[in-house]
Specification:
Blueprint: H1 2-5, E1 14-18, H2 23-34, E2 38-45, H3 53-63, E3 67-71, H4 74-81, H5 94-112, E4 116-118, H6 132-141, E5 148-149, H7 161-164, H8 182-191, H9 211-220, H10 225-229, E6 235-238, E7 244-247, H11 251-259, E8 266-270, E9 278-281, H12 287-299, E10 311-315, E11 323-325, H13 332-338
Parallel strand pairs: 1-2, 1-4, 2-3, 4-5
Antiparallel strand pairs: 6-7, 7-9, 8-9, 8-10, 10-11
Helix pairs in contact: 2-8, 5-6
The protein binds iron/sulfur cluster.
Iron/sulfur cluster binds next to helix 5.
Length: about 350
């Protein structure tokens, strides 16, 4: 790293700040910016993580820093599938996740000639990734030893190279510790920062209901990040090893599931009546499988206790080529047996 930084005047010092859309990261950016450092924000957009792209962008704008967004892809999914440092309460590999983000940010730091990286991490705030040991591990594993600053709790940690070289005045950094939010909320008020997501939550990897969906996708396979993104919507059913169905729970989910359908998926819905849309994923479904999906649609519609209703279906890329079927009527037990997570 040494040759990368050389001797610069404070005016030339640039830092990359990880901006999630939450309060802590934008406070850290504001602290560093106010010390006269040129800050470039970096946001990692993930299908169901703890960040929020819209808030990240709004908060960066609010404090006047540019923001570069990286879209996470299949490489990130592999990390979730096989984390090196284990998972938190559910399927959240927070340490691996942070190392991954920081490695990407370090590459970007080189590209733009920045001098160090900072994050909004707070010592003791999260049990898995924000204790002394994990903070050190994350710093070492990301290859940023000495060049990773945590401005909100820096006074509780060993001085970093930016502090030692005098780029940053350590006495202006903070010593926030623990899970409380009072100090951060007071700072937000002080800096007039209003654009941020509420603390805690957002990452579906920490949600018990989401884990079976992801495990199912890892077990039976998925085509791409688009399919993984749609795991967050609707009710989901494993018909057999080749077929899986997504059923919208409201109009918004119906639209999103259709939007994220692949061309070869099948779209099924009640003919000329309101109800859930079902997206069937799998190759060349038989009429028996399609009828079973029709049964799911009727079973979750307002018409569930009526006689079998007419269902229309088509392949997603052949919307004008509609066909019709009569659904199989399914018992509550049959529905529950197909459900990937409780419905
Ligand atoms: S909560 Fe943990 S696993 Fe989820 S996105 Fe954040 S760092 Fe990654």
């Amino acid at each position: 790293m040494q040759e990368l930084f050389g001797q610069k005047t404070k005016k030339q010092i640039k830092a990359i700040g990880l901006i999630s859309g939450g309060l802590d990261s934008i406070l850290a950016a504001k602290v560093i910016k106010d010390l006269g450092i040129k800050v470039i924000g970096v946001h990692f957009n993930m299908p169901w993580g703890c960040g929020n792209k819209i808030k990240a962008s709004a908060s960066a704008k609010q404090i006047g820093i540019p923001l570069k967004t990286f879209q996470l892809d299949e490489e990130f999914l592999e990390l979730v599938r096989n984390p090196q440092y284990g998972v938190g309460s559910v399927m959240n590999p927070c340490v691996d996740c942070k190392v991954y983000f920081l490695k990407k940010a370090a590459q970007y730091m080189k590209e733009v000639g920045a001098d160090f990286i900072f994050t909004g991490e707070v010592l003791g705030q999260r049990p898995m990734s924000q204790l002394h040991n994990s903070l050190n591990l994350i710093e070492n594993e990301s290859g940023l030893k000495g060049y990773l600053l945590r401005p909100l709790c820096a006074q509780l940690l060993k001085p970093t190279i930016p502090e030692e070289r005098g780029w940053i005045d350590r006495t202006k950094l903070l010593s926030i510790n623990g899970r409380g939010r009072r100090s951060q909320l007071d700072l937000a008020k002080h800096y007039h920062i209003t654009e941020y997501t509420p603390a805690g939550g957002g990452c579906l990897l920490t949600e018990p209901h989401f884990a079976p969906r992801l495990k199912d996708a890892f077990k039976y396979g998925y085509r791409d990040i688009k399919e993984i993104t749609s795991l967050k919507w609707g009710r989901q059913f494993r018909i057999n090893k080749d077929f899986k169905a997504f059923l919208g729970r409201d109009e918004e989910e119906n639209k999103l599931l259709k939007k994220y359908a692949h061309e070869t998926d099948y779209i099924l819905q009640l003919h000329r009546k309101n109800g859930p849309t079902l997206i069937l994923k799998g190759p060349k479904p038989s009429l028996k499988i399609l009828s079973l999906c029709g049964g799911l649609i009727q079973g979750f519609s307002k018409l569930k206790s009526l006689e079998p209703q007419k269902i229309e279906y088509c392949q997603a890329n052949l919307k004008k080529d509609k066909k019709y079927l009569t659904p199989s009527i399914l018992s509550e037990q049959q529905i529950q047996a197909l459900a990937i997570s409780p419905v």
